[in-house]
Write a structure and sequence with these properties.
This protein is α/β, with parallel strands linked by helices. The chain is 27% helix and 28% strand. The chain folds into 2 domains: 84 residues, Urease, subunit C, domain 1 (Roll); 276 residues, Alpha-Beta Barrel (TIM Barrel), CATH 3.20.20. Helix 6 packs across helix 7 and helix 9 runs antiparallel to helix 10. The chain is globular. InterPro entries: Amidohydro-rel, GlcNAc_6-P_deAcase, Metal-dep_hydrolase_composite, Metal_Hydrolase.
Length: 375
């Protein structure tokens, strides 16, 4: 296919605009612009999308694997590449590859593998743990949950070379010295697996914790005499929160409430894992989600496009807003203006899907990745 492509006859969703009867121009790795069809340059190849929706490639800041590839169980370049390939076919063109609580040795090996792999879709690693609250550990092994210290954080991140982009911690157990060290490494710090009360959580936000991991799951409850971590994020002005919209991790009525209270501070993740029968995380597919062998809920079987579809069909969220939750809002949180939008000069990561949420085309840096599966 020509490296200069004009996507025509589609409905374009770009940030807060819904654009009809215009075309999206891609020139190699970058977006050229959105123009009327009669203004397409002669050297562009036309791709008729037949009324489908055109949006930025989706961004998942928390995913462990997909299909039969759980990265933490394999820790190989081949596993990382396989995950990237499968996610592209799902319309996800940028993600943080995530590891749950494990030994420091496993984390450091994952960092080394990531550095050696030079991935094209994975932007970095998200470490969910090991500095969590054992009372809210969920599927994380209790014997691997440890207390943070500046020494341990330095041991973990000293040779990471900017590979670790995000870490989930329990804020009530993280002192200021530890938070200062994380800031020095320019890691996005997110509160999760936490029993923090309202005051503890609010104080941590004011000190520089910018996000909350999988809102409602594995955290203090919203109670009328102590609104906990959920109440703290609802009452804050800037902190963002991720949410798993599969109807299992969070009831759709709670999704509706969260959306009303957080607005553009709520974004989508999949928290997706993969079938795995080895290592410390043995995930068993149970119809439409994953559990540990003992039945503990351990991860979703979502794709981001399915999460968008669920927002539209079950949570009363408009399609354009649901798309922003999977594109614009996570790109803002990680401060990357070149993804999550279709603006001139941005990276040409593009998803095309129809009204039945079936993928028709995916472009990664302007290169066509064909997909037609039902999400």
């Amino acid at each position: 296919m020509n490296c200069r492509i004009a996507l025509i006859n589609g409905i374009i969703y770009n940030q807060y605009a819904v654009i009809k009867q215009q075309s999206l121009l891609l020139d190699e790795e970058h977006i050229v612009g959105i123009v009327p069809i009669d203004q397409i340059p002669e050297d562009y190849e036309h791709l008729d999308v037949a009324g489908a929706y055109i949006c930025p490639g989706m961004i998942d800041l928390q995913i462990y694997g997909t299909g039969d590839q759980l990265f933490s169980a394999e820790l190989t370049q081949e596993s990382l590449y396989a995950i990237e390939k499968q996610l592209l076919l799902q319309g996800c063109t940028s993600f943080y590859l995530t590891l749950a609580t494990n030994t420091l040795e496993v984390f450091k090996k994952a960092i080394t593998i990531f550095k050696q792999s030079d991935p094209t879709v994975a932007l970095g690693l998200h470490l969910e743990g090991p500095f969590l609250n054992p009372l809210k550990r969920g599927a994380h092994p209790e014997d691997l949950v440890i207390s943070a210290s500046p020494t341990l954080i330095n041991e973990l991140l000293l040779d990471a070379n900017d590979v670790v982009k995000m870490i989930t911690i329990a804020p009530e157990l993280l002192d200021d010295a530890c938070l200062d060290v994380l800031k020095q490494y320019k890691v996005l710090v997110s509160a999760g697996h936490s029993a923090a009360n309202f005051e503890e959580a609010s104080a941590s936000f004011n000190k520089g914790i910018d996000a909350v991991t999988h809102l409602w799951n594995a955290m203090s409850v919203l109670h009328h005499r102590n609104t906990g971590l959920p109440g703290a994020v609802f009452n804050h002005q800037t902190v963002s929160a991720s949410i798993i919209v599969d109807g299992i991790h969070v009831d759709y009525e709670a999704v509706k409430l969260s959306k009303k209270l957080l607005g553009d501070r709520l974004f989508l993740i999949t928290d997706a894992v993969a079938s795995c029968r080895k290592g410390i995380y043995q995930h068993v597919l149970k119809k439409d989600h994953y559990v540990l062998p003992d039945g503990t809920l351990s991860g979703s079987a979502l794709t981001l496009l399915k999460a968008v579809e669920n927002c539209v069909n079950h949570a009363g969220i408009s399609l354009d807003e649901a798309l922003r939750m999977a594109t614009l809002y996570p790109s803002r949180l990680i401060k990357n203006p070149l993804i999550g939008n279709l603006n001139r000069g941005s990276i040409a990561n593009v998803l095309v899907f129809n009204a039945n949420f079936e993928i028709k085309h995916v472009f990664l840096k302007g290169k066509a990745i064909m997909g037609s599966q039902k999400e």
